Amino acid sequence: MEQTDAVRRKINRTAEAVGSLLVDGFHYLALFAIGASIVWSGVYAFIGMTAKGHAAIDDILLLFIYLELGAMVGIYFKTNHMPVRFLIYVGITALTRLLVGDIATHHTLDWGIVMVAGAILLLALANLVVRYGSARFPSTPTSERG
Fold first, then answer.
1. Strand, coil or helix: what is 123?
2. Could you give the 3-state DSSP secondary structure of residue 107?
3. How many Å apart are CA 104 and CA 98, to the nearest integer?
4. Predicted structure pTM score
5. Res 66 pLDDT > 50
6. What span, in angstroms and rounded, lies between the C-alpha atoms of 66 and 63?
7. How many Cβ atoms sit within 10 Å of the Cβ of residue 72?
8. pLDDT of 101 above 60
9. What is the DSSP annotation of 57-117?
10. 23, 15 in Cβ contact below 8 A?
11. Angle of CA points 89, 92, 97, to nearest 5°
């Protein structure tokens, strides 16, 4: 009976090691694929701007979105924690880009602009709550941080 338990424990350890290896491999492969697609999209957008001969404000904001996404992937790669604040920053930048583009094309003030501005304010408040929560209630004790 002890031999059976020893074999079972050995099989479990081996399966756990192989499973961890496969999960980590997929994790890194997916991160590299996401990072490469962000770089590819950013370069494509930049080439489009240079072909036009100028960059509009919404083009520059698009590059900031790519920068924030790249930073988010880098932070996730280093820490294995999803930085929610960066997602909020991406949302704020995307809504700002929408707002600037809408005002530039329509030149009219309507409730759509107010709603987008309200959504930006809501995301900014969400960012404040996340920052306050992470400072007040850290996920790891202060003594364990490096």
1. helix
2. coil
3. 10
4. 0.74
5. yes
6. 5
7. 21
8. yes
9. HHHHHHHHHHHHHHHHHHHHHHHS---HHHHHHHHHHHHHHHHHHHHHHH----HHHHHHH
10. no
11. 125
